[in-house]
Amino acid sequence: MRLAFSTLGIPGLPVSDAVQLAADNGFEGLELRAHPEEPVHPGLSLDDRVDVVEEFKAAGVEVLTVAGYAKVAAPGGDEAVFGEVRGLLELARDLGASYVRVFPGGGDSIEDADATAARRLAAMAPLAADLGVRLLLETHDSHSTGEDAARVLAAVGHASAGALWDVMHTWRAGEDPGASHRLLAPFLGYVQVKDVASAEDTTPLPPGQGVLPLHRIVGLLTHAGEADDPIGAVGSGGSAAPAARAGAARGWLCWEYEKRWYPEVPELPGLLPGVRDHLKTLLAES
Q1: Residue 224's pLDDT is what?
Q2: Can you give the residue ranges of the Xylose isomerase-like TIM barrel domain (predicted)?
Q3: pLDDT for 107-144, tens place per residue?
């Protein structure tokens, strides 16, 4: 598995500095937080997009994801959401990113949220496919568990709509990692990992200093697709299950350090060698 980290941990840092950090510390990819307060967002001009591509190419680093904030399960009309997702998909296409991250953001009724998210993802998945990008629904907020995300994605039934497994949210929701993995595997794009002190205190910690069961999660990922593994036996099957098995074996672990939301925590650049070494140790031991 290849390693990436999210620019959520280096808020506002210029692209040239971010890609150099990745290259210098042995990370092959970056998850780009796509927000107007960041250097990369859907409002970039074509010239600026070309400059971003050149910076990544020069450093030998991949744009893993355009991490947007569209809420596909949110109540209200579809057009604003479609416009936001379309802008993220086009940005991902221009930058050569593999994925676009979206949030659920559902309201009080989980049934309505499921239906809304499935309808919107099904409508946008063909465009994602045409642009060579995959839409990933993150396990987050109204759909924090693997069961929640898999329920929506099974209803969508399109290989260009998948899952981003944020392991903290499924764990905080009380879902066993084995269950999360089994449910998400047919749809899995990649996995966000991090460490926190407890389910109540989500202040970011350096890897290995918190309580998230990362060793077990990495083991589940690296053994995916073995004969005795249930991956591919659930979900929509068809074209999604083989992709999930391949993604698990050759996919990405992305370190998410929420410095933007916790400005008091140590700076990420000084932690990156330890992050890299810890993740590589987990992979070797698994």
Answers
A1: 83
A2: 19-230
A3: 999 999 999 999 999 999 999 999 999 999 999 999 99
In the numeric block, which tokens belong to residue 136? 């990933």
Cβ proximity of 161 and 126 under 8 Å: no
Q: Which residues pair with 192 in a beta bridge?
A: 166, 254
Q: For residue range 141-180, what is the model confidence (pLDDT) as tens digits? A: 999 999 999 999 999 999 999 999 999 999 999 999 999 9
What sign does the dihedral 50-131-120-149 (CA atoms) show? negative
The DSSP-derived string for 42-69 is: TT--HHHHHHHHHHHHHHT-EEEEEEEE
> 159 by DSSP, 3-state: which?
coil
Q: What is the DSSP letter of 228?
A: T
Q: What's the CA gap between 284 and 272, in Å, rounded?
A: 18
Distance CA 151, CA 235 (A): 8
Query: 144-167 burial, b for 16+ CB within 10 Å, e for fewer?
Result: bbbbbbbbbbbbbbbbbbbbbbbb
Query: Do 72 and 105 meet the contact criterion of CB atoms below 8 Å apart?
Result: yes
Instruction: Quote the mean pLDDT of the chain.
Output: 92
Structure tokens at 18: 């971010």
Rounded to a whole number of angstroms, the distance between the first and last alpha carbons of the chain is 12
Instruction: Read off the pTM.
Output: 0.92
- Strand 188-193 and strand 62-71: the pairing is unpaired
Is 3:253 a contact under the CB 8 Å cutoff?
Answer: yes
Residue spans of beta strands (DSSP E) within 139-258? 161-166, 188-193, 252-255
Percent of the chain clearing pLDDT 90 (strictly above): 90
